[in-house]
Amino acid sequence: MEGIYLEGNDRPEHIERISCSVKNCVYHDGELYCTAKRIAVGTTTATSCGETMCASFKPRNDVNS
Description:
By secondary structure, this protein is mainly beta. The protein has strands spanning about 5, 10-15, 40, 55. The protein has one domain. The protein is built from no helices and 4 strands. A hairpin with a 6-residue loop joins strand 1 and strand 2 (about 10-15). The two termini are about 20 Å apart. About 10% of the residues are buried. The model is unreliable at about 1-10 (pLDDT under 50).
């Protein structure tokens, strides 16, 4: 999955109405949003919010971000 990049702009566009606080993901915009083209949420057997996860997560190479 790749982020959505605006022509002539370094900043990726975020997914409307999807907030994310996982700052060590390559798709995090540095503020509060996800910039992945699409997201996948799992698992298929979840019965509560705590049992779900973002299957689109990809760690950043720069761990200080």
